User: Fold this.
Amino acid sequence: MTPFYRSTVRVRAALAASLAAVVTVTACSGGGNARVDTAEASGDGVLRVGLILDNTGDSAFLNAPQLAATKLAIQEINAAGGHKGRPVELLPAHPGREAAGQANDLVAAKADVVIGPTDSSHAAAAVDILSRAHIPLISPANTAAALSGTAGGGYYFRTAASDVAQGPVLAKLAKAAGAATIVVLHQEGAYGKDLAAAVTAAAQQSGLTVLPGAGFKPGDAAEAARSAAKAKPDAVVLVAREGARGALAELNNSGLSGSKIVLSDGAFARYGSGLAPRVLDGTRAVVPGQLPSAAFQGKLLGVDPSLKDVSYAAETYDAVTLAALAAARAQDDAGRSIAANLIPVSGGTASRVAASNGGGTPEPAAPPARCLTYRECLGGLAASPGIDYDGESGPVAFDTNGDITTAVFSVFTYGPDNNPSPTGRETTGHSG
Assistant:
């Protein structure tokens, strides 16, 4: 069986496997930091989940897997008893409207938690509206590094890793292949600049020598490629998105190709005949997340038999499940309570420090019990307030910024046909 592998390009369509091969940032209000504040019960007894589907045009196909994953999670939550014995409700989605308009609709519909948006550039507007209404927003796909500092009063979380989390993995792949020296080429813009800096820092920390790199604009990478070739590196890490194909062609023209190249997630695509034969033979690339299991894909197909892609489905499923577990831990469906309990149910950093005795320095608490499903975690909550939900997308463990602290990446290697195949998995993380 050949599983889907998830898309990594943020605003445009990217690689998706054929279904036939599958399965037999603005200031926001909110008051304090809802992630760590305590909250009194104030819900009405019905947990309502909203969904912002902000994909249009070529990226509209990304709406379907997120909707299917949300429905699947709610089905399983309700099969396990729902929230306090009452079914969890999914509010109607309105993908034809802009993200801010959808957020306003969901406030009016009395959503308790909202999942989305996909596009990082839409996050700030949605957070601004929802945080004012004390409704947590959990994005399954926002990856912009700057969003870690979003001023949403503690109501913003994401189950997708920040772009810069892949920096150590890209450096590790270069070193594991025998490189002692690397050059980092990056497409101009926040994604390229921030991730290039993360790769450089990780490479230097691992003992690699980082030779002078360069930035380039899409369609204008020739000079940067020639500069890289003159440095004579053992490997080149290419950090790019829509400018990747042109940069790869220019690197090849400069004598750099094949196993010398390591690609960031934004540069990951099926290039095929779009590049000269064997240009990418041996090239490696990373894709955030782990390959969805055949069992999970089968469940998604049970919800939507027409599904042709599972991009962000695992992260969406986990976002909904975590929200329901937070409500269960609080015994309250209000947004304040959900936001205040998401870190503890994820096994996150704020839940791992025990209160000190007598005002001394807090000591680490015992690791919370790991659980894999809503039903299993619900049983864990009955025995202890500390659980660690690890879901379909892997470990989560939110930190006090609402970011996941452990990121899983699938590794792909390109063949002579310039197309990728999965060849491994890497995990990286931080403690804060």
